[in-house]
Amino acid sequence: MNSTLLLRATGISVVAALGLAACGSNSNGTPAGPGGSSSPTSSSACATGSVTGQGSTFQANIEKQWISQFAGQCSGANITYTGTGSGAGIQQFGSGTIDYAGSDATMKPDEQSAADKRCGNPALHIPVTAGGVAIIFNVKGVTSLNLSAATLAGIFDGSIKTWDASQIKADNPGVTLPPTAIKTYHRSDGSGTTKVFTGFLKAVAPSVWKLGSDKSITWPSGLGANGSSGVVQGVKSTDGGITYAEVSYAKQDNLPTAKVKGAQGDFTDISSSTVSQSIDSGFTISGTGNDLAGKLDFTKMTGYPISTVSYVFVCSHYSDAA
Q1: Model-level pTM?
Q2: Considering only the top CATH level, what class is 3-130+311-315?
């Protein structure tokens, strides 16, 4: 698949990730498919057997949608996916305990080597969806919020400590902000979402963000929690709380998300169209052959500026072809 076809496919999947995962299901209770289809097509191929996956919590909600939809038509198939974090998924895939892994970050060279060894052939990156890393907050009396990359960097490195700080006021002229203490929540498990979020801060606010970018970093402040659901639940129960997670977690807990300003454009809300715009402008294929690993350039994203592709990792061939 060439990069143009991939981006077209990704554009469809963005709608699934942002619209369907956020809503859970359509009004009649039937999970909707990409592009708004409410049921699987009768021509879909069925298979029997079991497939297990785990990893990215970013894609966990849409995985559940896809699995439910497929199982509704193909009763002989047993598919399971557990959102354990990208780091755990990559590790378990490399050790051979699961059939595929979900991740929002590409594999490092040592992770790729372990996966190739486990497979006995090249392990592939396959982009399956895309979405935005939402900035989710809970500040009493505040329902709308603008946050620039530099301000976010200061909030999450602990140098901006209250919601009425001058940097936040500058991003939100005319808005009354309380002196409430900022309480950040970050992922304590190895997380592709953390790598995407910190990658954005490193690329767009390098003069402020000095903590690097990886699935796990040493946070100087804030509270850690496991998984996207863990950090979002922390924010939900905390006045002054803020975190980063896939947008469906904000929707299901009825929490507001901030408009974010990156390197291009003005403060932008997260939506299927703004994420599509950013993937079109900031994502390119770097893999070769059948491997569709890609690179994100946050400095070129023209829509919602913290957008990402999310992958599954699979073997080129499996010892059990069925």
Answers
A1: 0.83
A2: alpha beta
